Amino acid sequence: MPRLHSRTDRAIGLFHPLPKQRRTAYIVFAYMLFAFSGALLPMSENKSTPLSLPLNPRLHLILLAFAERPAHGYEIMKRAAARSGGVIKLDAGSLYRSIAHLLDLDLIEEVERPPEAETDDARRRYYGLTDRGRELAAGEARRLAGLVEYASFSGLIDSPRAAE
């Protein structure tokens, strides 16, 4: 009985029959996505917490919300709900734990209150992305864009560029 799928095919999930040349192209493309998408980032300064991709979707959404402009926690909660179409809802407890975690990893930092926020509650703390946080959020965005491109190449979805 002929073997329909190689070990490599099973490892990366290629179970549909394709000519060997095309399977090889998929494998090379998948490796390139991983190797060149910024998935391999340096360790954090304390060496106990690696900064690596993929990021938790909630953390990535929070970083993206901070990338727009510095904000306080409640504003981030509103932005995250709006940007995800209501799919991801952050409750106050998990949001502030995530903010503390991002502060510990030096991905965000406390910043001065913006001038337009002088009428806000004085207890509100404003946070903004660090260069390191911006780099990690951009790396995850590139990784996700590469996965969308791969899904399009595989025929699972229409090309995002075709929709433009």
CATH superfamily of the largest domain: Winged helix-like DNA-binding domain superfamily/Winged helix DNA-binding domain
CATH class of the largest domain: Mainly Alpha
Largest sheet: 2 strands, antiparallel
Beta-strand share of residues: under 5%
Shape: elongated
- The name of the CATH topology of the largest domain is Arc Repressor Mutant, subunit A
Mean pLDDT: 76
Number of strands: 2
The helicity comes to 40-55%
Succession of helices and strands: HHHHHEEH
The main sheet orders its strands as: 1-2
Give the termini separation: 47 Å
Determine Rg (CA atoms, Å): 20 Å
Structural class: mainly alpha
Number of helices in the DSSP assignment: 6
Low-pLDDT regions:
8-15, 36-49
Gross CATH architecture of the largest domain: Orthogonal Bundle
Number of domain modules:
2
Blueprint (SSEs and pairs):
Layout: H1 7-12, H2 20-36, H3 57-68, H4 73-83, H5 92-104, E1 108-111, E2 126-129, H6 131-153
Antiparallel strand pairs: 1-2
Helix pairs in contact: 2-6, 3-4, 3-6
Characterize the structure shown.
With 164 residues, this protein is mainly alpha-helical. The protein folds into 2 domains: 7-42 and 145-153, no CATH class; 57-143, Orthogonal Bundle (Arc Repressor Mutant, subunit A), CATH 1.10.10. Helix content is 50%, strand content 5%. The protein has 6 helices and 2 strands, in the order H-H-H-H-H-E-E-H. The chain has a two-stranded antiparallel ribbon with strand order 1-2. The longest helix is centred in the C-terminal third of the chain and has 23 residues, at 131-153. It starts with 6 loop residues before the first helix and ends in an 11-residue tail after the last helix.
